[in-house]
């Protein structure tokens, strides 16, 4: 057994450690790089596709909140999901975070372990990745968006499928099971909800080939993106689904994966992005992670001495959804936040009046868009 694996076995990585801290008490972290002056926000949805063997995109950012800002406001303004923003900022009250508080924007991502083509949805991360075919002579890109997924009892299915049809301004033919649920809760639904502002499918829907009636669609409640809320469908921000609808043709492959532990590779540095597994998920994801780490160590010709198994256990247990180094002496969450660029707060409150973007326009580099079953 490789030396780095032995402490991991003793630590019982698969048992999860939700109460663990991400601060490394045994090895002092390196000094943080001095943050740059306040700058414009960096890209949050559109990134150059890295070369094969590298799977980390984006950069963390930090903003300072104003008195009235909540984490829902921040998520909408910076095109993030609510759950991922809460997870990246432990101990922060999402509704009353406090004036002057600095918030980490989790805008660095490890790409799912899946072919880089079509649409890939990582369910526990509540993230969709789209790999368009580049135009002739153009560089390849990846676009990523927060999504809402099926709540417990209405799980989003896993596997490989494709887009089978698309519809603008769809009517919602309410499944009998959903009508029954709503009736029991005193909120009866009609058999068909017509297109319009009261339709939870929003203005665009793309049907998937899974058995049943599963869609990628918009929403009439954009503040609820990035949580477990649907009856199994994949729910997106209105601007995001509008853009994706125009880009993804019928026949586009869609892979739905279950990867709460994502091993990031950037040169010879290994990082771990850990999300909370779904409540009903009993998969031993730690075993797959150990195999992946072993594979990467073999690639760089290492016996594992540079990898800190205790750091792996802490990151896996804390489940902050932020790529953090698993190398000895690597940056922890606090150090990563300290070194992240401070960017301008672009939160606005137009979304109360129906503007689902929820903020000022983000950079041109993010031009994918601004921003149910």
Strand proportion: 15-25%
Helix content: 10-25%
Low-confidence stretches: 5-21, 351-365, 367-373
Number of strands: 20
- State the secondary-structure class: alpha+beta
* Major sheet: arrangement of strands: 1-8-7-6-17-10-13-14-16
When the domains are counted, the total is: 2
- Overall shape: it is globular
Strand count, sense and barrel status of the largest sheet are:
9 strands, mixed
First and last CA, distance: 47 Å
Structural account:
The chain is of the alpha+beta class. It folds into 2 domains: 5-111 and 259-339, no CATH class; 118-258, Beta Barrel (L,D-transpeptidase catalytic domain-like), CATH 2.40.440. The chain is 19% helix and 22% strand. It contains 8 helices and 20 strands. The chain has helices spanning 5-11, 71-77, 82-88, 176-184, 238-247, 285-299, 309-318, 333-339, and strands at 46-48, 56-58, 61-64, 102-105, 108-110, 118-122, 127-131, 141-146, 149-150, 159-168, 172-173, 192-193, 204-208, 215-217, 228-230, 234-235, 253-257, 261-266, 269-274, 324-325. A 9-stranded mixed beta sheet has the order 1-8-7-6-17-10-13-14-16, with helices on one face. Strands 18-19-20 form a 3-stranded antiparallel beta sheet. A hairpin with a 6-residue loop joins strand 13 (204-208) and strand 14 (215-217). The longest helix has 15 residues, at 285-299. It is globular. It starts with a helix and ends in a 34-residue tail after the last helix. The model is unreliable at 5-21, 351-365 and 367-373 (pLDDT under 50).
